[in-house]
Write the structure tokens for this entry.
Amino acid sequence: MDANRRIEQALDAAVAHAEAPGAPPLLAEAIRYAVFPGGHRIRPRLCLSVARACGDDDPAASDAAAAAIELLHCASLVHDDLPCFDDAPMRRQKPSVHAAFGEPLAVLTGDALIVSAFETLARGAARSPGRLAALVGLVARAAGSPNGIAAGQAWESERHVGLTEYQQAKTGALFAAATVTGAAAAGAQALPWRLLGECLGEAYQVADDLRDVACRQEEVGKPVGRDATLGRPNAAALLGMAGALSRLKHLVREAVEVIPACPGADELRAEIEAQTRLFLPASLARELV
């Protein structure tokens, strides 16, 4: 089974548990709406790619890890779009969750998706208690504070924030989680894989900053120009378009160079180089060549 199908099946199973009889119908509908259809599923694909490179001897555990990472990502999008944060009316070419279901249900949808991420891990890795314990710790680190996505969102409420600290938590946390959980799910040491995820997370954030400055809403499926409007750090604004593109190229090269020794290293390098082309729309991706 290819990675995309594995991811979608694992996510569908997770959402089906949240839709079980007894669930409030609107909450169940909002949860599915937040997860499907998805974007490029870059983070869960990265998780499975690392698991495969490390042998992928427990596909149920790696599928659960990949789904958990994507559920956290979807939760972060729901919360990020709320009126108290970005007040974004669109996400993935459709109304954001709070625009479609109202603010109270959007808050609860994000909360439910976070809990679902850990429930999915518990079900998928139950046969390997040692791996499950490691996975729970790694995913929790990516979700909370001091360096997880909750911290990344909180930095937006601080008077002063550095670009690196902000991006490492806001975006890098889930990319780092994708690589370390992919390794842990396959029984490999997790720590050596963190740098790969951090490099790719920063690369993705730089690409997102470029999209925010240089693209139209129709290209990226969400409002653009928000960093300038909200006074947030933006690599393209700080470094210029050429400087941000140069930084993006450097980070992708660094990511490929820091892949730990593993049976599937060559295939993983090729996949990362292919995946990073999805970071930017075609109008900007040509600049990466």
In short: The domain at 3-288 is CATH 1.10.600.10 (Farnesyl Diphosphate Synthase). The mean pLDDT is 90. The chain has one domain: 3-288.
